[in-house]
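=== RUN LOG ===
request id: a7f3
mode: sequence -> structure
chains: 1
length: 276
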Amino acid sequence: MSLMLKLLAITLLLSSFAEAAAIEKKIESFLKKTYSGNANIKSINVKVADGAPIKGQKNWLAYVVELNAILKKDKRQVAQKMVWFSDGNLITKEIFDLNSGININDVVTFDFKDEYYKKENLIYGNENAKHKVAIFSDPLCPFCREFVPKVINDMRKEPNKFAIYYYHLPLASLHPAAVELVNAAIALELKGKKNVVLNLYKVKVDSREKSVEKILKAFNKVMNSNIKVSDLTTKEVITHFKSDLKIADALMVQGTPTMFFNGKLDKTKKKYKEAK
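=== RESULT ===
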């Protein structure tokens, strides 16, 4: 490529970035003005966190918008994340496909960024493997208990083909015991124990159990370990747990199991089987 063509390509790229940034600022400004009109809100900050193209819609993008507001009544801080759609001139909360009747909110997805592939989340395989698979799971989710161990065992046989990244996503409202369970798993991994994630799915405990002692008793029995209550609240455990939740939140992952294959959401959960 000639120098002139390179300069033209760079100019077009910079122009595209500038245009995208300008649209994001317009969205932030519009939504801040709109929500500031709410009598219950004292102050609000609006930020566009991410954007994704909409299949079949050339000019429209889906934007993840983060709202952080302080309420007037009790000065309570409220944070919320939502998706808005815009073409740079129009903005809407929902878009329906007139032909299929599908709500685009139900099909929009966001890519798994390279920065989310953290060393501490790599449980099997080579980080330079041809395919990267990210799994978000709750060890007490009934479907996860059957599905996740099988998937992991299938892929771990080929460490140079698959890099398996695992992210703890306990669904606290459904399975409160899972929160302490995954913190125990993180604590044990930090002590150097191997195969913790796979064995985690063998732990038998009531998903509604609230006694940390009972949860740890069941955990330690399976793991042949001695994790204590104090181990669950170390800085390292909390940091890892919050990191997993933050990544899930950034991708707007709400259900388990959720899988990403080479950076793309895999709704079929079978793309690893088709991998060359």
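=== NOTES ===
DSSP finds seven helices and nine strands in the chain.
The beta strands are 41-54, 57-71, 77-86, 91-92, 122-124, 131-137, 162-168, 258-261, 264-265.
=== END ===
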